[in-house]
């Protein structure tokens, strides 16, 4: 087992309880069928970002509930961003600007979303979306956690191994 998984076993258990309704939602689980990067699905990336957000929230005295759940839903946009829209000349380029709003609408359709969670999802692409400045400390933190996790997933195989194990651990519900 990965050392970081062993070290964080208790936090993983709490994370699982805190997010179980999202993790077990059938629509949310379809995120595993969409690629984020070559080796990582949107589901894996979302759990990576969300669990690191949870660990940071505890350290930085931010409400862990909203930060963790907002981070888990930040990329809940439900399509493959690599697919070009044949009706749009610029479809793929606009994904970066458009997907936070799509993810937010999907999140609202499936879950009860509070103001902090809304802000996290809607503003997570800042500063690309210049006019969408994060309002809360939790939203600003997720902006950078998302970028950090994406970078590590792309450049570091060890991180990808860790993320795959983390997802297995998170989904190992005792009552399944
Ligand atoms: Fe995103
Ligand atoms: Fe992301």
Structural class: mainly alpha
The CA-CA distance between the termini, in Å, is 21 Å
CATH first level: Mainly Alpha
Q: Which small molecules are bound?
A: fe (ii) ion
Total helical elements? 9
Instruction: Report the strand count.
Output: 0
Rg result: 15 Å
The total domain count is 1
Show unreliable segments: none
CATH topology: Hypothetical protein af1432
Question: What is the helix fraction of residues, given as a range?
Answer: 55-70%
- CATH architecture verdict: Orthogonal Bundle
Q: State the shape.
A: globular
Strand content: under 5%
Question: Would you mind describing this structure in some detail?
Answer:
This protein is mainly α. It has a single domain (3-170), classed as Orthogonal Bundle (Hypothetical protein af1432), CATH 1.10.3210. It is built from nine helices and no strands. The chain has helices at residues 3-7, 9-23, 26-29, 42-59, 64-72, 91-110, 115-123, 137-155, 157-170. The longest helix is centred in the middle third of the chain and has 20 residues, at 91-110. The two termini are 21 Å apart. One fe (ii) ion (FE2) binds at residues 45, 49, 74-75, 146, 150.
Topology summary:
Elements: H1 3-7, H2 9-23, H3 26-29, H4 42-59, H5 64-72, H6 91-110, H7 115-123, H8 137-155, H9 157-170
Helix pairs in contact: 2-5, 4-5, 4-8, 4-9, 5-7, 5-8, 6-7, 7-8, 8-9
Bound molecules: fe (ii) ion (2 copies).
Task: Quickly list its features.
globular; 64% helix; 176 residues; Hypothetical protein af1432; mainly alpha; binds fe (ii) ion; single chain; 9 helices
């Amino acid at each position: 087992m990965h050392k970081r998984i062993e070290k964080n076993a208790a936090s993983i258990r709490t994370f699982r309880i805190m997010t179980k309704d999202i993790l077990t939602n059938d629509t949310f689980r379809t995120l595993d069928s969409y690629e984020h990067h070559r080796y990582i699905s949107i589901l894996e990336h979302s759990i990576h970002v969300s669990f690191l957000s949870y660990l940071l929230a505890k350290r930085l005295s931010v409400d862990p509930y909203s930060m963790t759940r907002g981070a888990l839903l930040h990329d809940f946009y439900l399509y493959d961003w690599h697919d070009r829209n044949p009706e749009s000349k610029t479809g793929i380029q606009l994904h970066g600007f458009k997907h936070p709003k799509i993810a937010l609408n999907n999140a609202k359709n499936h879950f009860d979303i509070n103001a902090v969670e809304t802000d996290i999802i809607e503003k997570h692409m800042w500063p690309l979306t210049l006019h969408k400045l994060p309002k809360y400390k939790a939203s600003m933190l997720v902006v950078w956690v998302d970028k950090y996790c994406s970078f590590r997933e792309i450049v570091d195989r060890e991180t990808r191994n860790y993320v795959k194990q983390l997802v297995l651990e998170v989904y190992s519900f005792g009552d399944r």
